[in-house]
Amino acid sequence: MATKRSKRASKTSAAKSKRRGKARAASAEGRAKPTGVINAWEQDPGAGAQPSGGQVIQRPVPVLRDQPFPIRIVNPASAPEAKPHPPGTADFRYWTAAEALRRGADFWGPLLPGMSWEVGSILPIDLDFGIDLNAFYDREGLKFFHGSAAGRTVFSGESPDVVCHELGHAILDSLKPQLFDAASIEVAAFHESFGDMSALLSALQLPSLREGVLAETGGALRRASRLSRLAEQLGWAIRQSVPSAVEADCLRNAVNTFFYRDPDTLPTTAPATALSSEPHSFSRVFTGAFFEGLAGMLATKGTRDEAALLQVSQDIGAILVEGIRAASVVPTFFSQVAATMLGVAASQFSAQGYEAPLRGGFVRHGILPPSMAVAVTQAPTRIAAVAASQTESKTLPTLHLSVAEYGLGVASIVVYAAAEPKRLQVAGAALAVGPAPSPGEDQAAKSFFEDLLRRGRLKVVAKAVSPAAEVMRSAAPLTHETYTHELRREGGQMVLRRVRIDCGHGHH
Amino acid sequence: MPRIKEKTLTTELAKRGFESVSVKRELPGGRVEVEANKLHPVHIEGNEPIYAPIPVSLSVELDARGRVKSIDGGTPNPATVADAARYIKTLRDSGQLAAAGEQHAASGLTHQIERDEQGRQVLRRKRFSIS
Fold first, then answer.
1. What is the ipTM of this complex?
2. Do B105 and A1 touch (CB under 8 A)?
């Protein structure tokens, strides 16, 4: 069993390791860089719902001991010959893990200059710690396992997705050690999300994957693809014994429609199709928002080629790191990170126009309410306005809804409220007991309006009104409009109008 | 303003029950804003309390030698304690929490309840897992 070293022991050891590391680095400088190539999985041994079918690529021989973030594989103790080995061999597994580790460390290194591992100067890796369908990061290093499913042996350390997820835990532990032990649902869930984001961003450092995923999605990154699907083979293996524990075609998918809920209102466990307060399950809310932001950032590029995708992956990595640095560790940690990320995007990447797509992701997944998403980067202006109706049923009463906080540039709008008397006194169920509180008319109308904003279904057509609060939908088709409501000036009022009903299944 | 010696500050705050200390920023008047975890009793269903590391923010006033003069904040608020209680329940229900003295071998376990030198039950993370 792994035992946690004391901080003091760790630091002392780290200092010694640092000296040893320097000595090794000095001697390594005299050594020639290895040449040649090895075979590796591009992203996972599996493909979709299948345990096999992953892409094999050739990569330069990785040098694990190099900066940034030096790594050492301690099991197996010695490296096999650095040459292309066939999949299904231990030698192949060694080099595919080594390649993913080096690639992940090389991605995060420039974003965290001068930072070292929380465990010491070198991160130890055990590629086969025993039997399990799992992988771990503890404060000793990374541990991978093997396990059997349907007559097939699966090695978790063979999947670059799994390797870069675990590496992500180690990276975040270096960046913000306080998160490791913090007894908080969102903090724990964010750590898991960071692991998945690490897998995504590390995968995007491969030219072949960038080209492949752009071809697979037709340039619309928000579509589910081998990039968004995490750990297909491990997911398959778990699915053989517990089908409800994982997604239908992978372990977790960054393309999802999970919407933020107060974790206190969620069940503690749930099948993979639903959200629970369990950290891996709840992490999907942030990962989904992040991925949608990433897809939207690419969509802002004139040319959506692999070079643009590489740039976007590096930029969002920088935004993420700065967002985490500045975020306060509180129960609502998701929104803290999201808000600081928007601030970084607005201040450091304003020319690239990343703020709007990032905001769209966070708002559409409910991590930030629209008003806060706007407020974090700009002060709302207040202009009075009133409105009238033309097409709605005259039987529906109108409400003047205060919307100053959404950054629309108007203080209030007119909406047609569902304010008729209730015919049946029913309400949705609360998770604990009894019915959920029924919102008042104003609250229901505001909730509906905010929901339109979150889902990117509102188009602002009045010139005097700021479109800043519009939420970009990365999932929106390029060929036609899909918004359902317009905010338009009618007479002297701003009126919310439905313009279409969209029954599209793919447009979440 | 005294020079901030993070190691000294960490040691001093550890004596007061703060863990995972990180200096967020230096403030005027010899104060530093610090983030840390503090062990705080969490009551789950009337059982013996579990001391959980709860994130807190505190402002620390340092003397000329860089030693702690006074501390503002650092007490977990009710929302963070409720979050910790919910977290412990989630860990328990999803099979990620091992009880005190229980072997830490089962797949999926990420946390363990340990007895500290004061005899308290303390929640400790042992690892992160992929699923």
1. 0.87
2. yes
